[in-house]
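Why this split exists: single-chain examples teach little about how molecules sit against one another. For that reason, every record in the complexes split bundles all components of an assembly together and asks for one structure covering all of them. Below is a record exactly as it appears in the raw files.
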Amino acid sequence: MKYVIAVIRPHKLEDVKEELDKVGVHLMTVVDALGCGRQKGVTEVYRGVKEVGNLLRKVKIEIAVNDEYLDKTIEAITTGAREGEIGDGKIFIFDMTECVRIRTGETGAVAIG
Amino acid sequence: MINSADTVWMIIATAMVMLMTPALAFFYGGLVRKKNVLSILMQCITILCLISIQWVLFGYSLSFGPDKGGIIGGLEWFGLKSVGLSPSKDYAVTIPHQLFMMFQMMFAVITPALMVGAFIERIKFSGFVLFSLLWATFIYDPLAHWVWGSGGWLAELGALDFAGGTVIHINAGISALVMALYVGKRSSFKHQSSPHNLPFAVLGAGILWFGWFGFNAGSALSVGGVSVAAFAATNTAAAAGGLTWIFLDWKFNEVPTVLGVITGIVAGLVAVTPAAGFVTPISAIFIGITGSIFGFIFVTKIKPKFGYDDSLDVFGVHGIAGIVGALATGILATKSINPDGADGLLYGNAHQLWVQFITVLAAVLFSAIGTYILLKIVDSTLGLRVDKKSEYLGLDLSQHHEVGYTLMD
């Protein structure tokens, strides 16, 4: 079992969802986020006062997958989110020790769905 | 002779119409995505500033100044020369000429602001400002002269346009469609995005409804029977338009929607604009219903079929309901409401419908062709569309270096 966290451009969310859908991954958690990596933020100006390097809006997608789904998931996220420029985002992959479906108490692969 | 009551009413009506542009900003602003809300507010407010100055300098003169061949007003009134505080001999003879000028200014302001809804989330601010100025000068001013100017050719023909169905709504609606086609779809077009703040849109629509009383009842240019007839017709058509859309939504989209009812209200208001002051309240019900039905067809059926990105339905609501209203005026107008108007088809004067048809046709052709030429000019100089990066960042950040909402405190 793996836990996948991807940080992507907000306007790529729909594309990523579409790609994930194609490979049969439908369960995910999506969070509004701010972030900056190598892309740096953008400058904002309020009444002439500059705020340099503010964080950029990002979207964080979190997905728990069974091992056989991992590669497909990574590929789908990459395809959907890639523009080929700095700021496309990153994918982080973690080993997951357990998963529990609250309604039934099921655990492990079944609980992931 | 200046009449005090008329003057008071027209000052209030003018201020009410002014409020419609910020109201429109919130109506449209609520319907876009978060990252573009400021760009909409900015465009509407900028137009309010820009056209106010254009109008005082030469816009009013081009629209209402001494007639040149029925086509345009002359520049004799440049900088409001001869537009003083005593009444004009041609327009609104009971109020100061400058008050009539101010009232008309607010119409000239809101018309290009209406078009903002067609090219949201992708327009370059500099190009937008230049385009708005050119459009106000070369499209709005001549058309206003044709229909309302003393000696304008459509006015001479007997065209009825009480408060601007043709000059404002058809004009803005058709130009908006041309602009949406020219500028192209948003890059996010295939993914339907939800309005970011529908309560804003409802607030905007509510204030628009209120302001429309100044718009239509004010177009009587005096206090009295005609202004009250316009007042009654306006409210009635707005209500009929809103109810109609509720039922259409219920029937065809399972549930009545908030965005639906406010769209229907605007469609009803648009449709009654040329007719208010010429029709009975019962006729206004028919006009509101018809405007709403045709708006519904164009917004929910025709637009998806052809796939053009008239993002906030300026064409579908203002253009279409405007045409419905202009033609309905030729059918339902009656001299029993307004002796200075004319009878329509229903009251035995089929000729009026023909005149209305010519007026609509002239306005459609003129706005479409003229707008296309202006778009070419602006596109080849300042440019009209932002680059892809600016578009996904959002116009608030890319065009104005501000954001409407922060994610963290």
